[in-house]
Amino acid sequence: MKSISVLHIDLFQPGRNSPDFYFNTLKDHLVLGHKHIEKPHRHDFYAAVLFTQGNGIHEIDFQKYYVSAGSLFFLSPGQIHSWELSDDIGGYIFFSSQEFYEIHYVSQKLRNFPFFGSVTFPRKIQLNQEELMENISLFQELEKEHHSQLMMREGRILSLMSQIFINATRLFSKDLDMLSASAGLSYFKHYQDFEDLVEEHFTMQKSIAWYASRLGISPKHLNRVAKTTVRKTATEVITERVVLEAKRMLMYLDESLVEIAFRLGYEEYSYFVRVFRKNSGMTPTQFMRKYKA
Hints:
This protein is α+β, with helices and mostly antiparallel strands. Helices cover 49% and strands 17% of the residues. It is built from 13 helices and 10 strands.
């Protein structure tokens, strides 16, 4: 099994003094990075991609998304992705490190935006025509600033990035079945805290009661929070994170299935296989056959 390459921002802009931010039109980016991005790969940075024309398939962490004009994607460090795009594809793409974002937003983490921090939120928003035109304007302003040498250039870039992220967060929130505006904020904060804990402890802790205790709420309320926010039970959220990590490990680690199961907190390999198959519809062996290079 071949390993999945990890790409760094400086691969796309060698020699730049400030390698922590990158911007390009999608067409030029695909030409520039062809030798790096033609196969499934991972990044060590955050990315946003806006498609303005063309079509295709964008696969992110083994989930396929259809691409068309108005498709807006967000990618986080560590995610595996690949795409098959039509020749007439058009749009914009930018990358940023957390360190670059912290130049002005010290207390704001990029992973706090739902499409960057949550593995259960979809990575795509399909914009309507009005939303697309608004985003095109923001991306074009971002492109202009990226190529400028004006005063406070980085501050302007960060401001435009934040506008794109905030607008996208509001669009994502439209799909949430919130009980009320105030309850929605409370539930979303609890859910973010839950996912942060899952991200840190999912290999060893899979009990809802354990996570609820750490959050200071009851298991019943934690389930309510998860169902309201992402329409999944808390157990499903934990299991999906475990299975996603299993898929990533199967793709780029040269270890046995038993070793991978043990790394993920399963002493009994047969139980790991049952969990994996129930969540993904196939066994780990079948998954490897499907994605084997």
